Amino acid sequence: MFLRNSWYLAAWGHELGDGLLARTLLNEPVVLYRGEDGRPAALEDRCCHRSMPLSMGRRTGNNLQCGYHGLVFDPAGQCIQIPGQTTVPPGSRIRSYPVVERWKAVWIWMGEPAKADPALVPDWWWMDHPAWRPVIGPVLPIAGHYELVNDNLLDLSHTSYIHGDTIGNLAQLEFPIRTERFETGVCMTRWTIDRPAPPLYQDIGKFRGNVDRWQIVTSTVPCFSDVHIGMVDTGLGQEEGVRRGGLEFHNVNAATPETERSCFQFYAHARHFAQASAEVDEIYARDFQRVFRQDVVAIGAQQKNMDVFRNAPQIDINVDAPGLALRRLIATALAAEARGETPLLRRA
Amino acid sequence: MFLRNSWYLAAWGHELGDGLLARTLLNEPVVLYRGEDGRPAALEDRCCHRSMPLSMGRRTGNNLQCGYHGLVFDPAGQCIQIPGQTTVPPGSRIRSYPVVERWKAVWIWMGEPAKADPALVPDWWWMDHPAWRPVIGPVLPIAGHYELVNDNLLDLSHTSYIHGDTIGNLAQLEFPIRTERFETGVCMTRWTIDRPAPPLYQDIGKFRGNVDRWQIVTSTVPCFSDVHIGMVDTGLGQEEGVRRGGLEFHNVNAATPETERSCFQFYAHARHFAQASAEVDEIYARDFQRVFRQDVVAIGAQQKNMDVFRNAPQIDINVDAPGLALRRLIATALAAEARGETPLLRRA
Amino acid sequence: MFLRNSWYLAAWGHELGDGLLARTLLNEPVVLYRGEDGRPAALEDRCCHRSMPLSMGRRTGNNLQCGYHGLVFDPAGQCIQIPGQTTVPPGSRIRSYPVVERWKAVWIWMGEPAKADPALVPDWWWMDHPAWRPVIGPVLPIAGHYELVNDNLLDLSHTSYIHGDTIGNLAQLEFPIRTERFETGVCMTRWTIDRPAPPLYQDIGKFRGNVDRWQIVTSTVPCFSDVHIGMVDTGLGQEEGVRRGGLEFHNVNAATPETERSCFQFYAHARHFAQASAEVDEIYARDFQRVFRQDVVAIGAQQKNMDVFRNAPQIDINVDAPGLALRRLIATALAAEARGETPLLRRA
C-alpha cells in the first residue's frame, strides 16, 4: 500500500535520452521518455490493443508508437493513430501520469492528476545552485520495502558498523541524537564534537586533528531524505553557526517503491567544498557508491529475513526514534488517503 | 484449459534419435523416444515406482528402462520387468499416448486414445512433396499462451513493425484483409498489389520493381497455421491464378501448449522456388530464425504484461478479425469438450 | 513437518572456523559459529532489533555482533550490549539452540532444550577411532525431502543403475535382502556371494576373481544411515564373521532437512583398510563424490516430478521394504510428538 498523492522520483533527467525507459513504480509498469520537444512524459507501459509494453516500441516526435502493430499514443495517453484504418475506437487510451522535471530529476505523480502541484516536489535546491557541486549516483535496485531505506538514512548509527572503514566510526555513538518532528517529516541531528573524522572524510578533508561533525537528516513523507553532513577542525565554533574550512554536503535521497518488496534508491551528493575538484568528484562517484552498495546488500538481507521470520517481535533502541516518528507520519498519511483525504505533504 | 481431443505436434522427427526427449505438453511431462524399430513412442515421464522421470533412464530395444531402479516399460506404458523380482504388481503402468509420424513431425494425442484418428493430423503435404523444399527451424520456447502465437500468425500486419527491416514493410497496410470462416478454422487473405517487396524478399527474389504479394494464412483449431506467402513482378496477373517467377512458400506452424503460460512454436518453411539452392536454404535457416525470434521476445513481453495488467481492457482493431474468429472457434470446441462431446477438428 | 526433539547434523566441525555459517535447518535460519573458546554455538539468524541476519555480522569473543547497528548477543541468545545506550530493553533475546560436537560434526537440537541429551547423538565411533580412516565429503544440497535420501540409502539396488559404472553392478540383484526392524530404526542386509566386484571396488581392492560382498545399512529415525560395505575374495567364509583382506568401510550419512523440499546430505567414509594410503583417500574424496552427486541429480528430479504429479499412485517393490519400515517409524514418531510425547530415539 503506497501513498498515491505524492510526487515520486521516477528517473534522473539524464536517464531520458532518445530511448524509452521501462520502470515499475508503485507496482505499475510505466514507460518514461523525453519527447522531441525535450519534455518528459510518463505513460502506462501497455498498448491498449494487445498489451504489448510500449517501452518495446519507439518514440515518434512527442508520441510513442507500439512496436507490435504500430498504434501511436500521445503524451496524454490518447491513441491517435491505428495503421490500416482511419478511425480510432472509443476507449483507445491508456493512463498518462503528470511529470515535472526539477533538480536534475523527473518526478511522477501517480495519484489524482488534479492534485499534482509542482510546489510539492521536495526542495533540493543544492542540486542546481552554482555554489554547490552535484554528483549523481547510479540508481540502486533495493530488494526491500522503501521504508527500510528511510530507516537506514534516519539512523546513521549504522555507519559505525556497515561503513566503519569509510564514512563511519564509533565516535558518534558517544553523542546523543536529537529528534524534531514537523508536520510532514522528521529531523535527526547529531553533533560529534572533538573526535577523529571517519576514514574516508579524513582522506578528503586532510584534517590535522579532531573534528566537530554534524549529521542532520531531514526526511519527509513518504520517501525523501536530505542527509546534511559536515565537519571542521574542532574548536572553531561550528555548532554556533560558523563554518571555516572543512567539508559540507547534502546527500539527497528518494526511495521510490517498485513493489511491496523492492524500491529504487535515487541518491546524489551536492557539496559545498572543493567544487572544482575532479578528484573529489571521483571520490563521490566511486567510494560513496561502494558505501551505498553495502546498504543495498544489507537491506535486501533484512527484507528477506523479515519475510522468513514473518511475525517475529522486534525491539526498538534509542536511535530508532526518528525512523519510528516518520513511520507514524506515513501511516497517518496512508490512513487519511484511505479515507479519501489528501494529506498535506509540503514541508511546514 | 486445453483441448484434449486433438493432435499436437510433439517433436520434429529428427529430434528423436537414440536419446530420450523430455517435454512438457499440455501441462503433462512426457518422454518421447524412437524405439529400435524406428517407431516413435510417448509415455508419461514418471516411473510408477518412485516417480523418477523416465527421461533420465535409457532405451532398451523398444522399451524404456528407469535409471533409478531399473524398471522396464513397454511403449504401451506397461511395466514388464522389475529387477530382483519375478512378478510385476498390478497397476504397474503409466500413461502412453498415441503418436503418429507425419510431415517430418511426431504428433501426439493427449485425449481419449480411441479417438486418435491419424486423418485429423493437419495436412502439410508440402513438407514431403519433391517439388517443395522444406527447411525446419529450431523449436522456439514461447513464454506465452499458445493462442498468442495464433494471433501473431493470423495478423501479419505486425510484420510491418516488428519485422520492418526483413519480411515486412508498410505497403501492406494500404490493402484490406479478407476473412473467411470455415467449420474448424479461419483464412485471412491480403493482396498487396504493385508495391515494393519487403527487404528480405527483395534480396531473395531480386525483383526489378514492384511486386504483387499475397499472404494467405489458414489457421485451424487449436494451434495450426499455414502461412502461404508469394510474390511476383507486378502486372503478371497473379491474383487471377498465374504464377510466373517470383517466390512462393508455405510457412507451417504448430503452437503446442506447454503450460497455460508457455508453449513451443514449431515452424518450417517449404518453398516452391530455388529448391536446390543452398544459399536460399541458409536464408531460411538463418534470417527467418532471426525473424521468428523477434516474435518470441515480443510474445513473452506481451504475456508478462497481460499477467501484470490482469483485467485491463483491450480494444480490437480491423486486422484482429481472423484471430478473434479463431479464438471463438477454440472457445466453442473447449465448451463442447467440457460437455463430453468431441468437436470435429477436420478441415471441411 | 519435522521431528523437533532429535539431534540433527548441522555442520561438520571443520566448517566452523573464524567465520559465521548461515544455514537454514528445519525451515529456520540458523547462524553457526565457534567461539573464541572453541565451542560451537547456534543462534537464530536474526537480530531482535531490525531482523538483520546475524550471519552478516562478526564474532567478538564468544559472542556475535550484528553488522547493522552493533548489538551483541551471547551464545545463549541474550543481547548483552546495545551501542549508544546503557540499558538493554527486556525481551532483547533470540533463540539459542543446544549443540554438541561429536564425530567431527556439530549436532543441533531444535526441539525442547531440556530434552537435548547428548547420548542420543548417533554412534559414529569409526569417525574418531585410530584404526579407521575417515574422509569427509562436501555438504550436498539436495533439492528434495530428506526422506528421499533415507530411501536412497536403504535401497542400494539403485547402485546397479545410477552407479553401474562405479560402485554398482547387476550381481546384487540375484540375491535377496533381509530387513530387520528395531525400535528406532531398520537394518537392511544383502550378501552377494561369489560375484565380480563393482568396477570402482575392483580398482581399489585389486581382487583376483569373484568376491563375497556385504551391504548392511542401518538407518535410524529420523535421518541417519550407516552404510556398512565390505568385500573379500570369495570362499573365505566372510559371512560367518571372518574378514581376511579385502576392503571394508562405513559410509555415514545424515540428511538434515532444510525445507520441506530440500535438505543437506552430510556424508563421510571411514575405512578399515589402506588407512595410510593417500591414493585411497583421493578415491574416496573424488570418485565417491561423483557417485553421490549422481544421487543429488536423481533425487532432485524425483522431488520435482513428485510435485508435478502430485497425487499419482506409486507401486512398491521388494527392495522397498526397509525404506517403508523407516517411513512408518518416522510417521509414528511425528504423531507421538504431535501428541506432546517425546519418542525414544536411542537405538535399542
Summarize the SSE layout with pairings.
The structure is a homotrimer of 348-residue chains.
Chain A: E1 7-12, E2 21-25, E3 28-34, E4 40-44, E5 58-60, E6 63-65, E7 72-73, E8 79-81, E9 96-97, E10 99-102, E11 105-109, E12 133-136, E13 140-142, H1 146-154, E14 178-182, E15 185-195, H2 199-205, E16 211-220, E17 224-233, E18 247-259, E19 262-271, H3 278-308, H4 321-338
Antiparallel strand pairs in A: 1-11, 2-3, 3-4, 4-9, 5-6, 6-7, 7-8, 10-11, 12-19, 13-19, 14-15, 15-16, 16-17, 17-18, 18-19
Helix pairs in contact in A: 1-4
What report would you give on this structure?
Three copies of one chain form a homotrimer. With 348 residues, chain A is of the alpha+beta class. Chain A has two domains: 7-116, 3-layer Sandwich (Rieske Iron-sulfur Protein); 122-338, Naphthalene 1,2-dioxygenase Alpha Subunit, Chain A, domain 1 (Alpha-Beta Complex). Chain A contains four helices and 19 strands. Chain A has helices at residues 146-154, 199-205, 278-308, 321-338; strands at residues 7-12, 21-25, 28-34, 40-44, 58-60, 63-65, 72-73, 79-81, 96-97, 99-102, 105-109, 133-136, 140-142, 178-182, 185-195, 211-220, 224-233, 247-259, 262-271. In chain A, the strands form four sheets. In chain A, strands 12, 13, 14, 15, 16, 17, 18 and 19 form an eight-stranded antiparallel beta sheet that branches. In chain A, β3 and β4 form a beta hairpin. The longest helix of chain A has 31 residues, at 278-308. The two termini of chain A are 25 Å apart. Chains in contact: A-B, A-C, B-C. Chain B binds chain C through residues 29, 44-46, 48-53, 56-57, 65-71, 79, 82-85, 89, 91-92, and chain C through 151, 155, 157-158, 160-162, 170, 173-174, 297-298, 301-302, 305-306, 308-309, 312-319.
